Each structure stands twice: as C-alpha cells, then as structure tokens.
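Students often ask why we bother encoding 3D structure as a string. The short answer is that it lets us treat folding as translation between two languages. Here is a chain of 287 residues written in the first language.
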Amino acid sequence: MKTILAPTDFSTSSINAVNYAADLALSIKAKLVLFHAIPFPIAVSEISVPGDFIDDMMEVGQRDMDDLYEKVLNRTRDRISVSTVIKIGSVEQEIEKTSWNEKPLAIVMGIRSGKSLERALMGSSIFHIMNHVGFPTLIIPENVQFSEIKHIGMACDLKQIDDKLPFETITEWLSLFKAELNIINISAQDKDFKADQVAESIGIQTRLNSFKPRFHFLTSDNIAEELSEFTRIHPLDLLMVFPRRHGLFNLFHKKKSRLIVTHNQFPVLSIHDRKPKTNSSTERLQS
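And here it is in the second language, the structure alphabet:
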C-alpha cells in the first residue's frame, strides 16, 4: 500500500493541504500519515525551562492532532488507514526522519501565497524539504482543493536530462492517474531552440511514449509568469518540477523562481533526479 505523508502546523494552509492529502489518499487507496513537529531548536540543557514546559507543548499538539484526526476520518468516511506522528525537534529533520520510515509516495505540504511565505513556519521549511529530502514533495496552494488528476505538466529545460530524469517516479504518477502529459520547455528570449534540445525531446518522448506526451516550447525570461499564462490556456491538475543541484532549470535556489510555487494556483510536485537508495542522511541526523 502506498503512503501519503501530510505534515501540518495546524495553520489554515497546512490544514487545506491535509484535506488535499486525505482526498488524494482516498482516490488511490493509500495510507495517510498525519505529522506534526513541535520545534524546539535550543538544547534544554542550555536554557532554563520549566519542568512541565515540554509536556504542555505535547499536550496542546496532541489535542490539535486528535481533533484533526477525527476530521480526516469523517472526511474520508473511515475508508482509508490514517495514523498520526508527533515529534519534538527541527521541522525539517523530523520530516526527513519520518519520510525514511514511511517511504511515502509524496510529502504533501501547504503553502501560503505572497510575501507571508518566509514568515510562515511550515512555508519556510518547504523549500528545504524539496531540495534535501529524497522523496517527492507535493506543494498545495492554500485555496486549491483536490480534484481528479487528468492533466499533468512536466517542466524541464531539455538540456542533458534524458538520462537524469527520474522516469520511474514520473511513470508511477502518470500510471496512477492515467493522466495526459504536457512537457513544457521554457527558454530565455535571447536563446534559440537548438538541435541538442530536439534530440533530448525525442529521447524523452521515446521513454514516455505510452503516455502520448505533448511538447510545448515557450520563450520567456520570466518562468513563473510564462507558466501561469500557459496554464490559463492549458489547465493543469499538477506540475512536475525537478530541483537539480546543477542546471539552468534549478528552480528553487533562486528567489524569483519561488514564484512558481507561491503565485500559481495548481499543485507542484517536486521530484529529485534520482530515487533515494539509502538513508545515510537520516543516519547522520540521528548520530
């Protein structure tokens, strides 16, 4: 059985993402894990903390989680397996550890649009999770609700990616929903479409031929704006992106590129180049 991991800080945007995750889990008959981390970054030994302080934090977190758990069960009519996890520690590290334990199909996280993003606890963690946790991360804008996934977009730069794209994960998602695939290439306005990009597109089409992909070649210096305009004409239920450490389409290391996530009204699925094979990073965190 596949697993959906839904971290929450009980904010409006994260509860909306939990609801999306619950509906997604119900649609594919997956297990849903509700997760909450109580941030406590400073070692207790370094500061004076009342003895019952952590207990009080846990009690509040557990009460909120129990309430959310009941609401999710009602929402899904008790038709899926739902469990809860509460941890104390760094949000990013605890999500990573739990991800290695659960090995989820996706980590579903909610995001608030606009300038408030960087001030939001969960929002500030999202980009770390997207870049450093080796499992797909599905980002849900605060006003987006789950609907049947029929149209999936895949944004890539068509530059030496045929042998680097995570085809296993891409194929898994396309197969789950039997969705139409739109492959979107965006080039800067002062650059021509070159022969090597044609070769890359042919290679990708060959690998994904059973899904009958459609290619769209766009030209713009503003990736986020161009994607937003594209989706007005070709509505997407999901956009796949690949936050590589190297390459021109390195979306999430540049502040402007964050607009793709924060200023568009469709879910964004961030997939690493390669599926994780070991949990060495988690072992380092635990050591």
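Translate back mentally: The chain has two domains: 3-141, 151-270. Keep this in mind for the problem set.
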